[in-house]
Amino acid sequence: MDTWTRRRFLKASGVSAAGVLLAGGAAYSASELLASGDGEGAGGEGGVLVLVTLYGGNDGLNTVVPAADPHYREARPDLAYGEDEVLPLGEELGLNPGMKGFHGLWKEKRLAVVRGVSYPKPDHSHFRSMAIWQTASPESPAPTGWLGRWLDAQSKPDPLTAVSLGATLPPVLAGEKVSGAAVSLGRARLPDAWQTVCTHLAAEQAGVHPLQQRAAATLGDLVRVNEAFAADEEQGSGDGKGGDKKNGKGKGEDGEGSDQDGRQSPEEEDEDEDKPADGASAGGQSGLAAQLGLVERALASGARTRVYCVSLGGFDTHANEKGTQSRLLGQLDKDLSAFLGRIRRTEAGKRVVVAVHSEFGRRVQANAGQGTDHGTAGPVFLLGEPVRGGFYGDQPSLAKLVDGDLSTTTDFRDVYATLLDRVLDTEPGQILDGHEKTLAFL
Questions:
Q1: Alpha carbons 141 and 245: distance in angstroms, whole number
Q2: Which of 249, 427, 437, 422 is nearest to 351 (CA)?
Q3: Within this chain, do residues 233 and 345 fall inside the same structural domain, yes or no?
Q4: C-alpha angle with apex 213: 207 to 215, nearest 5 degrees?
Q5: pLDDT tens-digit profile of 138-167?
Q6: What's the CA gap between 323 and 273, in Å, rounded?
Q7: What NCBIfam families is this protein classified in (predicted)?
Q8: How deeply is 407 buried, as exposed, middle or buried, from its count of CB atoms within 10 A (0-12, 13-18, 19+)?
Q9: How far apart are CA 356 and CA 310, in angstroms?
Q10: Of 217-226, 369-378, 410-419, where does mean pLDDT reach its minimum?
Q11: Is the pLDDT reported for residue 135 higher than 50?
Q12: Are 4 and 71 in the same domain?
């Protein structure tokens, strides 16, 4: 039987509204993504952007730490790191102690830290702030994402030029003429709770209106197709593209179903990373290693994709922040450092730039729950072989807060303009409503 794809799932279910919510719009399977390549080079000859979103609002002050600043220790005495705990960067700043891989890249001048990044008139709402970051429109709401507008500007718009790895399509990839693609990681199925609800709602009832009967029937179709889709995924395609559920390779390729270098398969890594976190997700997902693993395979296959969007949730640390954030940053560090270490040996990997951001930082002052509340400015990380390492932008002063928040010293559109200009070969002003200022990290 042909491997189910998310598009076939939508067609077979006959439930367009529910299907689109499940699949996230323009949906493709991992096999389709990998089959789009020619095996000769990822994304043609241009640069490749991997955009990592840390959903929930990462605390920038405990990521790039001003450990020597007395204002820092006074504002959060129980959350503060000591000078002997952080990984030194210079200028009286240090990285969170869980970010040893990033520190190694810093010493190799392959990590850029852009400081004090936010937008004019910051908003403490997750949804409004993330909408601003994804549309690059701080003054007024916009119907398209900044990368969606970049897709629209291509001579041959193609959803697979920019993809999001996971079940939903983020607004950043929504264009007016074409949107990016949501690429399944192999687990695109209804959660068990929804499966149960849909089964009950689909049960036949006597004496109900014909339209209600029709709605119930479509929910039944959704359940049946979902079950078939999930069963087929579990078998694996075994064709070397979709691969078995252990590692995406054909079964028997290395005799054990594990990666040849001894790494955990994406599903094995998911078992650890899907454990509940103290911090709320606010839109992100776990399984970063699995997402990056698919990016790596797509690069190796020569997929025509120029932009990959991946995410990690859990950064809404209103309580018990220190341990939670340290664990999450350690996961980010481990997964991204391993990914960059593997791809740097390839031709495609030499053209990859990774950008890491969150919708906002946290308040300077700790709250009563040993956490921090929604704040404003924070750091953005740029990593990869093309990156010119170092600090960019000024460190916000803890002695000159704005209503208890850090001031913005770098407009987030400066980062986007640089990525558009030097990675995606596009005039920034066309995409960012005239904003053209760039930074020197590339």
A1: 41
A2: 422
A3: no
A4: 150
A5: 999 899 999 999 999 999 889 999 999 987
A6: 15
A7: TAT_signal_seq
A8: middle
A9: 10
A10: 217-226
A11: yes
A12: no
Q: What is the mean pLDDT of the chain?
A: 81
For 257-291, give the DSSP string. SS-TTSPPPHHHHHHHHTS--SSB-TT--S-HHHH
Other CB atoms within 10 A of residue 209 CB: 8
Q: What is the dihedral angle through the alpha carbons of 275, 248, 345, 285, rounded to the nearest 10 degrees?
A: -30
Confidence of residue 251 (pLDDT cuts 50, 70, 90): very low
Quickly state the pLDDT bin for 185 (edges 50, 70, 90). confident
Judgement on whether residues 109 and 58 belong to the same structural domain of the protein: yes
Residue 47 lies in a domain: yes
392 within 8 A of 399, measured Cβ to Cβ: no
Instruction: Tell me the HSE value of 254 on the side-chain side, using a 13 A CA sphere.
Output: 15
> DSSP letters along 137-151, please?
-SSS--SS-HHHHHH
pLDDT at 368 over 70: yes
Model confidence, pTM:
0.76
Range of the domain at 297: 36-186+259-431
